[in-house]
Fold:
Amino acid sequence: MIVTSFPRAVRVIEHTSIPLKDGTKLAARIWLPDDAEQNPVPAILEYLPYRKRDGTNDRDALTHPYLAGHGYAGVRVDIRGSGESDGLLSDEYALQEQDDGLEIIAWLAAQPWCSGAVGMMGISWGGFNGLQVAARRPPALKAIVTICSTDDRYSDDVHYMGGAKLNAGFGWAAFFFGAMCHPPDPVLVGDRWRAMWLERLESVPLFLEIWMRHQRRDAYWQHGSVCEDYAAIQCPVYAVGGWTDGYTNAIPRLLERLAVPRKGLIGPWAHAYPHFALPGPQVGFLQDMLRWWDRWLKGLDTGMTDEPMLRAWMTDSAKPATHHETLPGRWVAEPSWPSPGITPLCLFLTDGGLSSQGAPLAARAVCSPLTVGKHAGSWCPFGRGADQAGDQREDDERSLVFETAVLDEAIETLGAAVLTVDVASDRPIANLAVRLCDVHPSGESLRVSFGVLNLTHRDGHETPAPMVAGQRYQVRIQFNDAGVVFPAGHRIRIALSTAYWPMIWPAPEKATVTIFGGTLDLPVRPPRAADALPPLPGPETATPEEATTIRPGVVRIDRLGLELGTEGKFAFDIKDDDPLSATAEMRRVETKQRGAWQVRIETQMHLSCTRDAFLLRATLRAWEGTSEVCHREWDRSIPRDFV
Structure:
């Protein structure tokens, strides 16, 4: 990663307020070319609840000054109720957030240093609200870049997968709960920091309770899901993600269903910006974005509209590991999506394994130990530690497995594999998890994709219905999109299990699912001469934020003289034969200190269940110095809705 110099000098407005019609003021940090008042520039908005002051300051430092140095205003705004912004935050992706976004864009367009053109960029939350605000069509918004986000808040977010409850939602809720309890910085807002903080502490909801009271795809999840009306988006969209991330599936859908100029980029990366993401290789994403912004915010011909619609990393086979610094492979490109050059390879589930020829299959029953899934890794890896799927052999041995003979030649796939199976269950509620694995000659099993289906959601996520014991159903399970090479000499394996802990919460009863037959459709993409693409440039950034590690878990942002401390403990536990033994718990402590000013926030959550309900307990405590200023507790019983 190269720190570069810029063609234009940059100045920073460390803190300013954006006034809204209702009197609320939102906090912004803005990077500008020095001469922007004389030579106005387009603005690029990143709009988040993660605190511009001390939450995203490190990645902001790499990105926004770079944009400003190349002729843009980089604008980082705290959502209402977060950071130094006024008001309260009630939930993720609320209508109020979108409404405020429209006002922010209008304000930016009217500034003397702005040319009147605005773009939105962001990863995860910022990618979500970029799509959502684009669907509201503010006149000044000319294009967006959405990274690691989704068009469907129910099917492809951290809360549910295939109608099953993701435990990643517990971890996200734990982080978000604590993050929304932070005070604004007194240096920026003055003496009113305390009143703002106390109001937040007394008003912050238990977010996990909100999300768990919506266990099917109802109006709550439809809100903010732009898949409800793709035509609402009428500005160009650049959709970016990585195969290691949890949010890749939206990119092919956006490319297929949007009607505006659009591009997709999918690398090997986990949940991070591509110019510093792991697994590598990282790319010059800031240079690539500049070409996008120059085209749509400045009207310059950068050649982007002549390039393929999708550029994707075709991942070569690697040894399974819970962390990868880099993943081998090459870039491939598709001029349109869906690609006419991709054809399904149909493999049948047979007594002899996965076969290209149909053959009998004696009924196979699967009733997994509830700890199958211990090698699954995180639903949404960040690439910073051991958070990726490891060797699957132990999980495979406790699953129902079908595999091909040794491959005579390599098979390359791009897109989403689909498993269609004829099943019956002896219980009304049952889950089926399926893994697609690359089996090495050594026996190591590399998970390349997976899918999950709560079988009560077999006919859709809006209207789940119990399974009738013994009745046969044909169900379809779509794997996460992937771009992978199965080399000659390897085998393709699918592994089916009725449990996938701690990835998903178990069904209320331990179910036996019987498989009577089925097919696996792989999206095969033969290599082609056009894949000899010019390489993407190497990564460049602005100068990193300087920080000093005081001790493990405590870091000082040197520029601010602000010390931040974080410690946490997460635990997921279950007994092999008792789904009602499942528990998830966390304790998180966060501190801030500058001289004599010190605050401490402690949050705890515990989730367990009965056959009919989820049991959620939580505690919030906060201190200013040694004085406790808030102590709140929650004890909730949430009915299970076919989950």
